């Protein structure tokens, strides 16, 4: 497999914010804002659908930690956390990643979608999801 992010890890070729055994964070080549950071699982997982829950939890904990440092160190008023999973989502690199984008009230841009999906689902999607969730309950939390 020729994964861009796996190559960055293997070659130590990224501008690392932090690099750990389970999750890592680095600066993208084309940042949307000062301090924009990508958080990835250090091992290869293609998307949200194949990552084990415990690795996802560790990765999201790093997302939260990076976001907190953006608020305290960069004085960001907030953050946007962006991710895409699967071919229908515009995922550009097939390695799960989360963009953590610091935001300020005067930054004059938006990461929020400006359009709504045109896709139609015959039945009520909320009911479909609620029924599916009820049929496969969560494991007990610690």
UniProtKB/TrEMBL annotation:
GO biological process, one term: nucleotide metabolic process
MF-aspect GO terms: catalytic activity
Pfam families xref list: HIT
Top-rank taxon: Bacteria
Residue interval(s) of motif Histidine triad motif: 95-99
Organism listed in the record: Streptomyces albiflavescens
Residues annotated as catalytic: 97
Protein name: HIT domain-containing protein
Domain HIT residue range list: 4-110
